[in-house]
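Hi Y.,

Following your request, here is the sequence exactly as I used it, all 195 residues.
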Amino acid sequence: MKNKDKILEIIKIRNITQIIHFTKKQNISSIIKNGLLSINELKKRNINYLYNDPERKDNWDNTISLSVTNKNLMLFNRFKERQKLTDNDFVEIKINPSVIAEEECIFCDTNAANHTFEPYRQNENELNNLKIWPAFEALFKKVIERHKYTGGKIIRSSHQPNETTCPQAEICLIGSITPDKFINYDELKKFTNGQ
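Below is the corresponding structure, written out as tokens. Let me know if you'd prefer a different format.
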């Protein structure tokens, strides 16, 4: 079975109905116009935007950070606190999950900035192991090792089938996502003030 078909099968079996990206409200007009773009692409096209995370410690600036089913609440709260913002300053973009089968992705079973992924950042062949369906399926495994060297595990217990074991699990999509893939497009359009 092809990688794409296997990813679609996992999406179906787990009843994954949405992939989430959150951003600041001020970015929505540009996103509706240009689609969801990576930092590298935004810079290349000279498009102004407001950072969620100015540090971007995963160093994958050619990707768009996505969560499965629910937003990464821990990261969301950290961004709010750091920048002294509120829930109202952000918007969730709900995306058709088929995009992760159609586009090249890096599947991370915990936060992509975690040092567990350092070997993958330094070796393209290793990184390829995170781009195939077993890496996607691993987001839902029974035990997630958050700290490879210091210990620290997350155990899957009362999770729904469509929820990742680690709430910080991340999909880093390489490329862009067009607005026709936004499930809540009409809701997002309300934030554009007719622009």
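The radius of gyration is 16 Å.

Thanks again,
Q.
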